[in-house]
Task: structure prediction
Amino acid sequence: MTPEQINEIAERYSRALSAKPGKGPISPDGIAAITDSVCDIPQLLAEVDRLATDTEVLTALQLDRGQLCDVTGLYPDECGCAEHYIDRPTVISIAALERLANHPLPAYRLKPRDPRWRVPQPERTICNHRKDDLCGACETLVAGLLHDLPQMLEQLGLTLRKAHRFAPRGFHRGDEEHPDESPIPWSVPAVRCMGDLHKLMAQAHLLSRHELLERMSKLMRRGHRVIDRPQDRDVAMCPECRGEIIILNRHRTVTCGAVIVEDDPDAPEPTNGEPRRQRERTCTYAASWEQFRRDLLTSNADVMLTADEIRFVLSHNGEPITRQRISYLATRHGLPREEIQAPKWQKGKIVTEPTWMYRLGDVQDLQTELSRNAAS
Result:
């Protein structure tokens, strides 16, 4: 079928679509257009059969690669012997080599790669020791980074496929706590770092050795930051100065050390509207982890929280409690509470709903009192 015939069939089919009953009133011209389009069906089926036959013939021609070479044991289009040589390296199968040598060849195994990092903590390095080439130490560093490159790409692949879990405390669902770590849904830094490494390898032949060292060390350092597990830490508030405390190890003493700027009590009273003289001092708070948690609850006893917030705070400080328990304390034991109108987002607008607020110290005191009465 020629292209002109195909165009004519397409035009008749387009006119038939336009003459469908749902697109307007029925007319003699529309009926004729639909009839002409239906008459093209046998011609189209014959063309489909012809194309299918041509495809089978081409497939058979492609599959007919000839007989295997007697020397190499490969097809002629893959063989590299003198008879079938087509400007490519000679490739000989192991079976052909054993047949020519008349004895089995020794098994050849790749040397397993050392899983340890040659450069475990890379830093961005610029070699200024020599101008013509890299110095000995930087040459060794480049060799180590190239040795670690396949392992780095493998680890980045694991990270971007959600194989790494970084949440140290699990997750909460209602009142239930799941200690297992939750997976990261997608690691964008891993994808970007892997892309930059591939780009660097594609451009490596265009770079000088000094530039290759600088860019390679920088990217490998970035890759280690992506794949390494971040150090677990707790961010809390100092019970005395209300400053931020970052706790890296709960088994050590929690110290603050924040610099506090306050009015100097030893300074004379200012005159003529002058500001009071300020002084700086360092917060000396220090306590164990358990004592720090108790001090933190004591310093925030006047905070008004919802039942969910109280459950979260007390459960993370060794005093588990549920929302049902808080409601029971309010209805049966007279726990003070205050109703407020809390805003929330609903169906594209801000609405308010009544919410009960409780004082944190009242919940703790009532719990302690009930425990003491039950023990006595």
